[in-house]
Predict the structure.
Amino acid sequence: MNSFTNSVLLFFSIPLIGFCIYVGYDVQIDFLHMSGAELPFQSYVYLAFGLLFFGLLGWRSARRWMGVYIVNKTNRFAWNSPISNKRKQRVITYTLLEVLVMSSLACALYITLDLWVFPAAVLIFFSLENIVFLLSGAKSRFRVGVSSKAIIAADREVVIVYFSGLQKITLGKDSIYFDYIKELQLLFPTDCLEKDQISVFKKEVQKMIDRDKVLIRNKD
């Protein structure tokens, strides 16, 4: 989820920065016979990029908050545990990097244009939202849960693995592989858990599986 969103955001940020440079520095565009400051529909361009950024980042933010909200209803899960300290450190590091990149891009747009435009405001808003999200998860709110229907892990990423349609489960040392019909395979990394919780987690997963329908292989 994050890699896709960040890739799309970066992809569309490049033409936006180019457009802002042309406008902000009033670069002459020979084939259009006008300068950057004279380009028409500038407000519509900023609005389009701003709405795109808001849609991407809003979708990711809503998914994050909803995942954390669901996994913290611990009474709905047969087993539920906070993520490992190692995973939590990665979550903090990568999220702060996102904040740095988005706020730097917003400041670059402001410096180039000497005014705040909608895309920059969206980036600043979601930079602050990321910080609030981190602070909210500081008290063990980033968790992994196992219910009768699925596994859900929620921090900056939300991973959901459903048990319906399963054909085979392979229990590896660092990951669990879930094979479904139509040759679909999902991977669940167990390094998001503390080492002393991994074996308990695997046992709980096996309890939720109908062994008459699902083949379980152990490759530890």
In short: The chain has a mean pLDDT of 90. The chain has two domains: 2-75+84-136, 163-218. The chain has five helices and ten strands. The radius of gyration is 23 Å.
